[in-house]
Queue: 2 jobs
Job 1
Amino acid sequence: MAATQQRGTMQPYRGGSGYVARSSSSGLYDVLELILDKGLVIDVFVRVSLIGIEILTIDARIVIASVDTYLRFAEAVNRLDLMSTETQGLPELMEGITEGGASSKTKGAITGAKEALFGGGDEDDEGDGGGQRTRRSSSSTTRRRRRSSSGGSSGGSSSRSKSSGS
Amino acid sequence: MAKGKANGGGARYVYGVVRARRSSRLKQSGIRNAPIKVVAHKGIGALTSDVPDDGLEAGRDELLTHSGVLERALQRGVVLPMRFGIVMPDEGSVRDRLLEPHREELEAQLDEMDGKTEVNVKGIYDEPTILREVVEEDREVGALRESIQGQPEDATYFERIRLGELVSDAMGRKRAEDERWIVDRLLPHAVATEVGEPVHERMAVNASFLVERRRRRAFDRALDELAAELGGRINFKYTGPLPPHSFVELSVEA
């Protein structure tokens, strides 16, 4: 169900390359993790209770390292016809994520959100000076932030690391 | 998370922070069709709406409304998005607990985010392509696959799990490489990036970029170019322009 809705929100865009699908925001699936996991948080206040939302993005990462995934990969690899250059009809983009009950996922996500809410806050205190940086945010998920060296050339060499250690 | 007392009465749902000279009511509705009220304080303001007395249980509609209110705000100017689901006890606390104590950092971030938007880029591997690469490049995978082929499933259960695990590991190594390559290509066209974990077993990259509005076309072009170079090996989903969810932060109060 959710998968259909997600696809419905995408406006297929065939840009220069044809390999980039674009949506001008509001596709719930695409912004869900940002809305739930990112943004300003103020510590002491109540968050509303979440019901009936399939928090696909938040918990889907747990699925990645599971026996089910391994068996699915094994099957896909076994089916693979190495001689053939044709791609076989394989599951649509989101199917892997939508598997599993929504209710349990929702519960997990609320816990995750709570952790994020009270998790360690890594201060974004660096000036705008040059130099790229890599850091972990205060979110419950592991994210790394880097700052562009004021555009122009891409130099990945001088990245610094910071960790909030949460 | 039951319905709390704080959800009733004069409780306010808070969407984000904008520049505002005076408090006002916008011709725009928020969650449960409550009008959006700007609670202003010394040049900055919070976008809020009343929370119904019977409490607020949020679902898909509320998420979409939260996102929609912020998008409208982004069209009007700079906005610092709150995370979904922040409810404060009343209008006074919006001023006293959010706007006043955090005024300097909010002002600084409003300045910093002005003229910039977030763009989220997800890259998804084409499964047959990536699996073929793994089988052809990884000798252990290739050998195990050969040994299993044609055998009954029951007899090879653990071998198949092992095979899948090896494939998953190999994909993880490819993901790390591809993620770095993609981010390095796009970052020169952005101000900053926030690289997230894959949320999907075939996800190659999941990254948000803070992009100056006037450079968005260049960013888009860079993505189109690298996608074309990858020739369908990785397909991309691009979402934006968005409010800068991934690039705002409040310091935690003591």
Job 2
Amino acid sequence: MSISIKDDDELLLNAYCDGELDPVSAIEFERRLAADQALQDRYARLQSLRRAVRSLPRFDVPTGLEARIKSGLDAASPGQAARPRQRSWSFQALAAAALFGAVISGSVMMTMERYGQRKEVAREVVAGHIRGLLAPQPFDVASSDRHTVKPWFTAHIPESPQVPDLAAEGFVLVGGRVDVVGHDPVATIVYRHAKHTVSVTTLPLGQSVSDQTIAGYNVRSWGDSQFTYVAVSDIPAEDLATFEHAFSTASSVPEVK
Amino acid sequence: MTTPLTVRRSNFRRTGFAGAVLNGRLEGPDRLSGQQQVSVPTVRNKDERAVFDEVFLPHMAEAYRLAQWLTGNASDAEDVVQDAALRAFRGIRNFGAVNARAWSLTIVRNTAYSWLMKNRPKSVVFTDDLSPTEQQELEHEGPLGKRIETPEEIAVLREDAETVQQALAQLPPQFREVIVLREISQLNYRDIAEITNVPIGTVMSRLSRARQLLIAHLGNRK
């Protein structure tokens, strides 16, 4: 009997409840509503659903969110976004030509240097770790809250990594620092495992470092679609492998290695 | 120069039925988003940071709640809002001085989905990726391919917050987002269409479908 309600009626009913019908259609619909018991039941049911959804408690907004957003923005240098948009064609062409030249010569140089660099990179990463251990504290920003560490990175370097919380796996986040590898600032996340410190340095893609031992520290490297990660610590190589697993699972980028 | 953040305003295809709707702006308590449009002076000459503060920040709490509904938890939501804020700031020149709220929520919504794609790839199914038949099926037959009837006899719904919240959280994303935008953010169809980048007719059918799914879920069965 009441199955006669058509699809369009369902849409009309919804639009009517949402106050989206134009006045003429609304009046027409009200007339039909008054005459049709089945439609009235549907209307009542729809309204009680809307009431229930609207009266859901609102999610609490975390305190300090606005401050963290602002500090994240302080990093994004205003100059970057504020470049004038229109340039004359010849200037663009000139710039493109210059850029092209720079890229070509740059890539040739890089190919030449890459071989020597690979070893150098691992050494520099370990050096960063050791420097961190010698300093009063192995990090520049101290926090076990990834929502503090991640924005801090965003504020200091162009490409910031995911900062997973691995406390459940036994690696407690203690902070982050900026290391310099080659001539580039890179993010290093610092974890503590028992009394040992684990540094994870994030290098741009394309840099590869082989697993090895340098100056008594185990070095382990892996990568995902965004970064090459290099973990350095004095914990045994097996534990470092566990760490890699926990870290790459938690940063949850599926295509590891 | 357009970026992915540019709000598209031109693609409201009106379906035959939707034409009867929305002829003329209604005044009334539901027209919140119309009233809340902030008129912001043209962007060009102002400090971008100041514009950002005026455009995005007032909607931060709402942005956060939307993000939490879309991602399903508080800590993901915070990451999404921070990412979105950065994107909004970088794209602030593309802000057209029309509807700051819809503009901000559009960025948050898009950021949430790209964030989910990247970090929780299994949790999201995008309708855009589905074939037309699959889309049809999803819109009309429920997420698991089986038709969910809305039993006529359901008159009373369970309305306790926990059950309702769970039911809403379990809806497929494209249904959940229209309900959240409509009932929790209290936006009108036009703004929802703009934010979700689908025609108004699709917004209407998704809303109707989503509500039927919720009613079927919340109906007391004896």
